[in-house]
Amino acid sequence: MTFVVTTPSFSGPVELLLQLISSHEVDILDVPLAPLVDAFVAVLRDESTALSMDELSEFLLIGAVLLEMKSQRLLPGRDAGEPDEEFVGWEERDVLLARLLELRTYAALSDAFVSLFERASRAFPRLRGVNDGFHVEPPDLLAGVTTAQLAMAYLHGIEEKPVRVVRLHHVTVDAVTVAETVATLSQRLPTMGKLSFRRLTEGLATRIEIIVHFLAILELCKLGHVALGQGSTFGDVQIEWIDSALGLDLGGVDSYEG
């Protein structure tokens, strides 16, 4: 069954009315929805007319679509307006702000000119020039200077300047060599037995002496005279003299001086 509606601007099936409104051929504002609903309710109350569930649901769907379309026209949302209309107010605001800034710049500039005029009003210019007969003579920079003095000044300017020498005779530098330390340790270690490097260097006062002793121990280990061991990571280095029939040869030992 097709439900026929009658409005001031349209008369026909309700499906056709929805199609014409969707295609903008009929204005939704010219279509009153309350009489359409009342007419449909009157048809439902008529006992001689039997409507199926599909017809009822179809009318409810069309009525809901018409109601949504009319509410959107009557209550436009944020996105319903034209973009150009939305930006008209912003453009006018920007123009007013630009003019306001321009006027404030001119006002500040006028205040600066007023301040300059006030300072200038307190100055009195000189109305007359230099008095008649007043003559200024520059001083003679060579007055009283003889040619001999000029020659001496020239010679003093071109003479070679002495080079300053820094004297270091008062500075004492302690020299410690690896070769001498190797020779000393080769005499001490056989009588000291097994000992740690910390104990070996506990009597030394300077860092360079400890470094040279460490290099000397490495040289003796390379020559096969001492054995080195370390029980744990970052632990004390243990030194043990090994009896060797080979003589101590210091020819290849670095003669580093600290």
Write up this protein.
51% of the residues lie in helices and 7% in strands. It has helices at 14-22, 33-45, 53-74, 83-121, 147-158, 178-192, 197-200, 207-223, and strands at residues 4-6, 11-13, 195-196, 226-230, 237-241. Strand 4 (226-230) and strand 5 (237-241) form a beta hairpin. 8% of the residues are buried. The model has no long low-confidence stretch (mean pLDDT 80). It has a 3-stranded antiparallel sheet with strand order 3-5-4. Among the domains are: 4-74; 178-241, Orthogonal Bundle (Arc Repressor Mutant, subunit A). The protein has 258 residues and is mainly alpha-helical.
**Radius of gyration, Cα only, in angstroms?**
57 Å
Fraction of residues in H or I helices:
40-55%
Tell me the number of strands.
5
Q: What is the approximate shape?
A: flat
Largest sheet composition: 3 strands, antiparallel
**Which structural class should the secondary elements be placed in?**
mainly alpha
Q: Could you state the order of secondary-structure elements as H and E?
A: EEHHHHHHEHHEE
